[in-house]
Amino acid sequence: MRDPIVRALVWVLRLVLPARGCHSAPATPPTSEPAPVSPWSRPWTAPSSRDVRAVFKDEHARELPELQRERAYAAAFARLGVDYDYPTMPLGSLVKPERVSA
Fold first, then answer.
1. What pTM did the predictor assign?
2. What are the pLDDT digits (tens) for 74-90?
3. Which residue, 20, 46, 74, 76, could crosslink 55 as a Cys pair with Cβ 3.0–4.6 Å?
4. CB–CB of 67/93 below 8 Å?
5. Greatest CA separation for the chain
6. What gap in Å lies between CA 102 and CA 98, rounded to an integer?
7. pLDDT tens-digit readout, 23-44
8. DSSP letters spanning 2-56
């Protein structure tokens, strides 16, 4: 009677407790994919705040009509290497009621 109880207890303990010794499996399986790189480990690639302020404070661009001003901002950001998709342009000025067909 003791032998089956001991075998059952050993079986349960092997399931619950990690294996140790020379026959144990490695803790972490080897992976072929590299460890994820933190975005904070590389230098800042966006334009500085000074460059962005200079684009929006340009006196020549401020005197232009709204659509041309947004295009001037987009051109200035393109020179800096940044994609500018008219985030300050209100949609009401682009969509006219007579152009919309229902």
1. 0.46
2. 899 889 888 877 665 55
3. 76
4. yes
5. 97
6. 10
7. 656 566 666 787 788 877 878 7
8. HHHHHHHHHHHHHHHSPP-STTPPPSS---SSPPPPPGGGSPP-SPPHHHHHHHH
